[in-house]
Prior knowledge:
The structure holds two protein chains of two kinds.
Chain A: H1 9-12, E1 15-17, E2 31-33, H2 40-48, H3 59-62, E3 63-66, H4 72-79, E4 81-82, E5 88-92, E6 97-100, H5 113-116, H6 127-135, E7 144-149, H7 153-160, H8 163-172, H9 174-199, E8 203-207, H10 220-226, H11 228-240, E9 244-248, H12 257-263, E10 267-269, H13 277-284, E11 289-293, H14 301-315, E12 321-324, H15 335-348
Parallel strand pairs in A: 3-7, 7-8, 8-9, 9-10, 10-11, 11-12
Antiparallel strand pairs in A: 1-2, 4-5, 5-6
Helix pairs in contact in A: 7-8, 9-11, 11-12, 14-15
Chain B: H1 3-12, H2 19-28, H3 33-53, H4 59-80, E1 90-95, H5 103-114, E2 118-121, H6 128-137, E3 141-147, H7 154-165, E4 174-178, H8 184-190, E5 194-195, H9 199-210
Parallel strand pairs in B: 1-2, 1-3, 3-4, 4-5
Helix pairs in contact in B: 1-2, 1-3, 2-4, 3-4, 3-9, 4-5, 5-9, 6-7
Amino acid sequence: MSNYPFDPKEISVDEYYPKMPPLYGMDMAPTRKFNTPITPKENFLRVCRKEKPLWLPNMATDFATIQPIVMPDANARVHGGIDWFGIQWEYEPLSNAAMVKPGTRRLSDVTNWESELVFPDLNAIDWQKDYDETYKDCLSDDLVVNFVIVNGLYERLADLTSFEDTLCSFLEEPEAVEALYTKLTDFHIELMKIAKKYYHATLITFHDDMGTQRSSFFSPELFREVMMPHYQRMNKAAHDMGLYVMFHSCGSVANQLPNFIESGFDFWEGQDACNDKDALMEQYGDQIGMEVMSLMPPTDEKGLMDVVNRYVYGLGKNGRCLAWHSTPKGAAFDSCAKIYELSRKHLAE
Amino acid sequence: MSKLQELATAVENGKSKLVPGLVEEALAEGNSPIDVLNKGMIDAMGVVGEKFKNNEIFVPEMLVAARAMKKGVEVLKPHLAGESSTTIGKVVIGTVAGDLHDIGKNLVALMIESAGFEVNDLGVDVPVEKFVEAAESDPEVSIVAVSALLTTTMPAMRDTVAALNKSPARSRFKVMVGGAPITQEFCDEIGADAYTADAASAAQVAKSFVS
């Protein structure tokens, strides 16, 4: 018998957490608040500890995902401009995001990184001021602060040089790549310290896309050689700080999941369109949690209920899934509340 | 092992530093420049493409092989000057208007070039008229390859293919399409000749069009 039986009053409240600043260039709606028996943050920590949560954590209701725009990387990727490493980004209206300006190149060659690259001074930003002015009044202690860091190791070198040169350098210039990635990892660890100290983060979402629609860009063996030692060091440092790390990696990267696990990532945020999340959850769910987005869910009762059931009785049946689901406009019912209610009952059994 | 075989193995394994020397040695052994090109390098890239399609190798291995071949071609070029035809066709390639993505398009261009074609890369955000002009102005163009990464730029691909289909020179060239959101169904719907899912397949289909 559960210590926390579901009470219908938990979802009868009509309250919201304060509206958060825009994320990924998108305006945020106020976060729906339920009358939960423990806080969403405590519930999420259960998942992190591989304990059964009381309900399926939902990024749309349980998390405060932030990407402070004072970080040049965040600003450049959202609006275009120069990022932390001097790379020029260009806004592309069709995708409402920016990409590295075609034809530009920051680093002549990876072997020249020490002489050509100026690493950012993280102390140049008044983080406390940004927190006080932008986040202090809207970040609730009850929610999981999820701090987004973009441009992981693969992406950064591709941005600095080119897609092709980066992949070739993994095979042809391993020493230079190793040295650069060591320094970049130091940088990421320092940034995580800031996320923890100033923004009270619990979770880091760390981006490094590395796949096409049909496979990963590079082999699992190459990941192990080039990336894994750095990601292991980074994740250990994060864990030592009390942080958990979700690896955002788009593309068909199922072949890399054992590597993500061995690297120490706690969660994987991947693309549904080219990964069989249901099968992967069965295979790896006990070792790595998975965040699953429902982008543009249907609004009709049956279609929306299928989405809810997949979360509650499929992907989330063992409490290892994080949903990213907002009730769509014009929906037949409040699907966020339904996910909460059904997963509360299911996980209590 | 003959020098041609050594060269092919070096290309397959992406040994850029070895390939130029092996080209010279293969020529010195009495092989014709055309054989060095075809048997020593283009055939090797065919093997690389097949391995990529079968997921035996990944993009980096394919890229270093293509780059190794390029190094070899640089050394071979002066020797090919007297040959009647060193390319198997000309390909115009580009990413459609409104779309700035070039990674997939570049990989296709590289593999098509490695298959023995001459490539005229129009770049990204290419207006319809520019595709048509490039296809019509050069009578040796046998393939126009059109790329789009975004679902939102698929209409631009449709417009591009429609304009190419109206060209008086259309019977001379084939139209190939590709990109993450593109499917065989969409290819058929807009009247293109071929859709391929990856760069190696694109090179194979391109070769089939001119053989």
